[in-house]
Structures are given as structure tokens and as C-alpha cells.
Specification:
The chain has helices at residues 4-18, 70-84, 138-142, 157-176, 194-206, 220-233, 265-275, 290-294, 302-305, 308-329, 360-376, 383-391; strands at residues 22-30, 37-47, 50-59, 63-68, 85-92, 96-103, 106-112, 184-188, 212-217, 238-242, 255-259, 280-284, 332-338, 349-355. With 396 residues, the chain is of the alpha/beta class. Strands 4-3-2-1-5-6-7 form a seven-stranded antiparallel β-sheet, with helices on one face. Strands 10-9-8-11-12-14-13 form a seven-stranded mixed β-sheet, sandwiched between helices. It is elongated. The protein binds S-adenosylmethionine (SAM).
């Protein structure tokens, strides 16, 4: 038998959808406590095909998204309210409406003031939906990116943008790798862990993968804080360990990450990735001191590099260019690209190396290129070469 309160509530959802005034509908509190589906969040999106209801199904460990036309979506909402969930909250421009099951079959509806700001455009072309969801996002709140209402704090909007950009770039690359359950991710120099948490969240909840992730960080207080936040977020396979990038005791590494680790600490991390035969190496270099000290330019280039700022920039390019070539000589296919525009942070390059199989002649060509570049700049060696010479001679 139809429940009158549910019918009234659904009429309101239909009306607000038609007027495009529905901001968000949250359907929660499962009738079946053993169900893996914890809640469903519905918003309006405007696609080329017209207005759609976007359903985000929040499961214990992942989110799944699906779009329905209003005609298809409303009966689905009806079924959820009648059969699967006990509560719902409808956020609209002019009001907030709560549907609560107070006892078996008895449902109450309460209308209160609006709490969410109206959406000015539902178009995907205009409103950029961020890959990192702020909804009930505990780690972003604990790290101070969000306020207590799970809204991005104004002063942290650049950081939030950087986190999203990182996940947009790296998430799909990891998604394509064929790694076994329990694959090992090491994030070297994890700091406060913004990017580490976001990646773990994305891999587990969005991609449904099952990694074991370790953040290595030299500062104890950051390690303790990060472990506390991982616990609060329910991230069971994310751990932070006090240690040094060069020698922290970790086992096999499948994915090596080092974001903004200073100067040659980036090379220490890459070295650990290479020697562990990691499938993927991702680093965002920070300062570039070693190569600048190595420069001993004598030819016509000297007249260009006599300007300190140009020498500094050239040292950055040569440091990272050689890093990529050395990784290529060790069997990695590399890409270097801008992480986020320099208006947000000057530390904006990502070097990504994917392990591939290379033939001997191409390795030889790469090594010859490295030698010629070093000769041009009067350099002895890149720090990463020195590390690799200890175990693997840089020969084809
Ligand atoms: C600039 S922060 C970057 C944090 C984080 N990866 C990010 O990009 O947001 C660099 C962090 O690496 C840590 N770090 C630097 N060198 C390290 C080393 N050799 N071993 C372990 N941690 C190191 C620092 O303590 C700092 O927290």
C-alpha cells in the first residue's frame, strides 16, 4: 500500500526536478543493516541529451555513479523510499525537507529553512565536478581543507585544486595497471598526507582496488597525526611510518610516489622504485641544487648561463630531463608534464615512469644521450646515476 507521506515527498522531488530547483537528495539509513549500499545521493546534471538525475551509490568501499532521465529516476527513488531506506533529506533553493521513519510504517515529514546554496548551472560544461568528493570527507576536514560543514575553506581552495588535479592525472594511470590485490604503494616524504589520503580514497572507493599504502615521513608528529586521521577515516590499509626515504625498511614496491621531496631525496626515492622493479614511479621534484653545483659550462652556452636565473632554470630542466632519461635507461617509459599551473604553486612538474621492456639498442642510445648532455654542461654525474652505479652499472 502506498504511503501518503512518501507520495507527498516524491511529488516534491518531481516538482523541484522539473523546476530545476533540486540541489541534492540524500537517501540514507538502510532497512537492511547488512546491505553494502549505505546511501544514495541524487543531484541534477545537464547533459547534451538534456536534464538527468545523477545517482551516486555509496557502498562501503566504493562509489558508483549512474545517470537517469527524470522519468526513469523517480520510480527508482520511490522504490528506495518504500523498500530499502528509512530516511531522506531533500535540499532545495527555498527549503530543506526531511523524511524520517519514526516507527514501523510511520513516516514524518519536516520542512525547515534552506541550508545549501542554489546551483546556478547544472551543466557539466560550467560546473566542474571535482574528482575528490567533499561529501562527509573526514580526512579533508581533519587536514583543514574543509570546514565543519564539509565545505572547502576559502584559503585552502588552491590546495583542494592541487589535490584534485593530482588524482585526475594519476588515478587513471594507476587504474590501467594490472596489479594484484594488495599491491604495495610507497609515498615517500608524505608530509601532512593530503595527496596520500586522496589517492588511497580514490583507489579504494572510486576504483574498487585493494592497495596497501605506506607513507614514509621523517617527521614523527606528521606520522602520528596522519595515522590518527587514517583511523578516523576507516582507511585500514593506509599506514604512515617514521623513516628516511633512502633507507626506510619497506618491502616490495609496486608504485613509488615522491611528491615535493627536497633536491636529491627525489633521486633516493626513484632509486628505490627502480631497484624494487616498481611498475610505476611518480615524482614531483622540489628544489634542484645538485646539478647546478655540477655545471661547468665552457662553450657558447656560458654567455647565456651567466644570468643566475637562467642558470637556475636550466639546472631544473637538466636535472629532471636527466632523471627521465636515466629512468628510461632502466626500462621505464617516461612522461613529464605540468601538474598545476604555476599561479598555484611553483613546484609544478610531474615525472611519471611506467615500466616497459626495452631492447638493448634503444637503451644504448639513451645512455649515449645522457653522456652527451653531461659533456655539454661539463658535468660529472647526476646523483641518481651515482646511486644506480652502486648496484646496477649504467650499461645496456
Ligand atoms: C614539501 S613536503 C611534501 C609533502 C607531500 N608529499 C606533498 O606533496 O604534499 C616534503 C616532506 O618530505 C619530508 N622529507 C624530506 N626529505 C625526506 C627524507 N629524506 N626522508 C623522509 N622524509 C623526508 C619532509 O619532512 C616533508 O614533510
Amino acid at each position: 500500500m502506498e504511503n501518503r507521506q512518501i507520495t507527498l515527498f516524491l511529488d516534491k522531488v518531481r516538482d523541484l526536478t522539473n523546476k530545476q530547483e533540486l540541489i541534492k537528495l540524500v537517501i540514507a539509513k538502510q532497512r537492511n543493516p547488512l546491505s553494502d549500499l549505505k546511501s544514495v545521493i541524487v543531484t541534477i546534471v545537464e547533459l547534451k541529451a538534456g536534464i538527468r538525475l545523477n545517482f551516486v551509490y555509496r557502498y562501503q568501499t566504493r562509489d558508483i555513479t549512474k545517470n537517469f532521465s527524470p522519468g526513469e529516476g523517480l520510480p527508482v527513488i520511490k522504490k528506495y523510499l518504500e523498500e530499502d531506506f528509512l530516511n531522506a533529506e531533500l535540499f532545495a533553493a527555498g527549503e530543506t525537507i526531511q523524511l524520517t521513519t519514526v516507527s514501523r510504517g510511520k513516516i514524518k515529514i519536516k520542512t525547515t529553512k534552506p541550508v545549501l546554496k542554489p546551483v546556478t548551472s547544472f551543466s557539466h560544461d560550467h560546473v566542474k565536478e571535482r574528482v575528490v568528493s567533499t561529501d562527509q570527507n573526514i580526512y579533508l576536514r581533519e587536514l583543514g581543507i574543509l570546514n565543519a560543514n564539509f565545505e572547502v575553506r576559502h584559503e585552502m581552495s588552491d590546495k583542494f585544486l592541487q589535490i584534485n588535479r593530482y588524482i585526475e592525472l594519476i588515478g587513471p594511470v594507476i587504474g590501467e595497471l594490472n596489479l594484484p590485490d594488495g599491491f604495495q604503494v610507497a609515498d615517500m616524504g608524505s608530509g601532512k598526507g593530503y595527496l596520500t589520503f586522496a589517492l588511497y580514497d580514490f583507489l579504494t572507493r572510486k576504483l574498487g582496488k585493494n592497495p596497501v599504502m605506506n607513507g614514509i615521513e621523517s617527521r614523527d608528529e606528521l606520522v602520528n597525526l596522519s595515522n590518527e586521521i587514517a583511523g578516523k577515516s576507516g582507511f585500514g590499509n593506509l599506514h604512515f611510518v617514521t623513516g628516511n626515504i633512502a633507507d626506510a625498511a619497506i618491502g616490495k614496491i609496486d608504485i613509488l610516489i615522491a611528491l615535493h621531496a627536497c633536491d636529491t631525496a627525489t633521486d633516493d626515492a626513484i632509486y628505490r622504485g627502480i631497484t624494487s622493479d616498481a611498475s610505476l614511479i611518480v615524482c614531483a621534484p622540489c628544489c634542484h641544487k645538485q646539478i647546478r653545483r655540477e655545471f661547468n659550462v665552457t662553450g657558447p652556452l656560458k654567455s647565456v648561463l651567466k644570468h643566475g636565473i637562467l642558470e637556475e632554470r636550466q639546472a631544473e630542466i637538466i636535472t629532471d630531463g636527466l632523471r627521465a632519461l636515466i629512468m628510461e635507461s632502466q626500462g621505464y617509459q617516461t612522461r613529464i608534464f605540468e601538474f598545476i599551473s604555476t599561479e598555484h604553486t611553483p613546484k609544478n612538474l610531474l615525472i611519471v615512469g611506467k615500466r616497459v621492456t626495452r631492447d638493448t639498442s634503444s637503451k644504448q642510445n639513451i645512455l649515449e644521450n645522457i653522456s652527451r648532455i653531461k659533456e655539454l654542461y661539463g658535468m660529472r654525474q647526476h646523483y641518481l646515476e651515482g646511486l644506480l652505479k652502486q648496484v646496477k652499472p649504467l650499461t645496456a
